Amino acid sequence: MPGLRAGPATPPPARLGADYQLDVSGEARLALGRGWLGLGLAALIGSGIFSVLLVASRTPYVNRWLPAADFFQISLVLHVDLSVLVWFVAMAGLLWSLYGTARAQWLAWPGLWITAAGTLAMALAPFLNPGQPIMANYIPVLESPLFLAGLVMFGLGATLLVLRSLLAAPRLGMRYDGRARWASAWARPPWPRPSACSASPGPGPCCPPRCTARPTTRSCSGAAAMPCSSPGPC
């Protein structure tokens, strides 16, 4: 387009003395973050235990002590769910709890405890109520009432986490610190905006407010053609 020059966007230099660290002040936010971190670590430990059971289910004489005949796929289901599903939701809860404000605390802890209860029910299902493993889904499941009830509880707790995080999201004002300068720098267009219209006169009664090299007459619907008679910048 005329008057526009393409070029790579150059982010502004880092401001001296800017705070690029996440503010984690506040006992309520720290305690809630520790709770989500504990859930994530427990999920990783449980995932490691089920990875050991994967090997045990293929070991002769040892697999006889396992509660189900096809315990290899059952262990694989729990290994994937704990290390992927529970871990990522717990890390999201950790970051959102530390970054958010102290609003809507009445949703914060119930979301954590319901998510943790659902995780515990899913982890105990292979030993208390084992079912047929279903590997067709991206999140594999067990056809077990205890596992499915735990999965529903986990989804409810994750929903409360998302709702509370939306309510407690901090507001950005007109002043941005170092944490927001890089995001605004990458969002800028890679070319400068034109300051004046050089191809045609300024907008008149029927002219669109943009630069164009076409003839300077426009016709409105239901009216005759009118010239662009107002000179000046766009």
TrEMBL record:
Keywords: Membrane, Transmembrane, Transmembrane helix
Sequence intervals crossing the membrane: 36-56, 76-99, 106-127, 147-167
SUPFAM superfamilies: Cytochrome c oxidase subunit I-like
UniProt feature coiled coil, ranges: none
InterPro entries: Cyt_c_oxase-like_su1_sf
Protein name, as recorded: Membrane protein, putative
Organism name: Castellaniella defragrans (strain DSM 12143 / CCUG 39792 / 65Phen)
Lineage summary: Bacteria, Pseudomonadati, Pseudomonadota, Betaproteobacteria, Burkholderiales
